[in-house]
Design a protein that fits this description.
single chain; alpha+beta; Immunoglobulin-like; five-stranded antiparallel β-sheet
Length: 235
């Protein structure tokens, strides 16, 4: 049994539509897996106390791409920070550039992807990259006290000021000697006592001699008158 022309034409038409649909599907799938500039993103952050710039590639096809980072100054490249190659993935592959960036700095990130000598991407990430307004926090520095400072802080100050050498402050032994000197000088010396006794004896000698002479005279007179009286009685 042979097919009619109408049936054959319908079959050919159906096969053509199916082939076209398959081609479109494959084309869409290929486009979805192609490397594009939209697959790349960049960010500035901190790794501890150091600044870093990270670039993430979400190209599911895994086409190798060369990433180059430039520091910008008034729209011109000031210097090249670095260059690395990344192979993307559906989850995203991230590479890191160490950069001590300053707040508000602008960086240009250029992407170039080539597959089988065909350039898929050769462009910059749109809008460039501007770093945050605050820099990474510096490491806390521990200041060790100097020997002189630690010695002064550890030492306990004395409440009584020390007397410097050669000062004129009185010595307790000297003050005691000074106090004892007047009492010793007030006591009369042996020579002074002898002189006082000699003077006292000399001043009393005349009075004693006068009294003795008077007694001698009185006694002599009494004897004289007594003898005379006896002589007159004997007559």
């Amino acid at each position: 049994m042979s097919l009619s022309r109408r049936t054959a034409a319908r079959s050919v038409r159906f096969l053509g539509v199916t082939a076209a649909s398959a081609a479109l599907a494959l084309s869409a799938a290929g486009s979805a897996l192609a490397c594009e500039i939209g697959d790349f993103s960049a960010a500035a952050g901190c790794d501890g106390t150091k600044g870093v710039i990270t670039v993430t590639d979400k190209d599911a096809s895994g086409v190798p791409a060369v990433v180059t980072v430039f520091l910008e100054n008034n729209g011109a490249d000031l210097r090249q920070v670095g260059e690395q190659t990344v192979e993307g993935s559906s989850k995203g592959t991230t590479i890191t550039f160490t950069e001590d960036w300053e707040p508000g700095a602008v960086y240009r990130i250029h992407i170039k992807a080539v597959k089988k000598k065909k350039i898929l991407v050769d462009d910059d990430i749109a809008g460039n990259l501007t770093t945050p307004a605050e820099a990474c926090a510096p490491a806390e520095e521990t200041i060790s006290p100097s020997p002189s400072t630690s010695a002064s802080e550890s030492g306990t100050p004395s409440d009584t000021p020390s007397t410097p050498a050669g000062s004129d402050s009185p010595n307790p032994s000297d003050s005691s000697d000074d106090n004892a000197a007047p009492s010793a000088s007030n006591a009369p010396s042996p020579a002074a006592q002898e002189s006082n006794l000699a003077e006292t004896g000399a001043s009393n000698t005349g009075l004693i001699a006068g009294i003795a002479a008077l007694l001698v005279v009185i006694g002599g007179g009494a004897i004289f008158f007594g003898m005379r009286r006896r002589g007159s009685n004997g007559r």
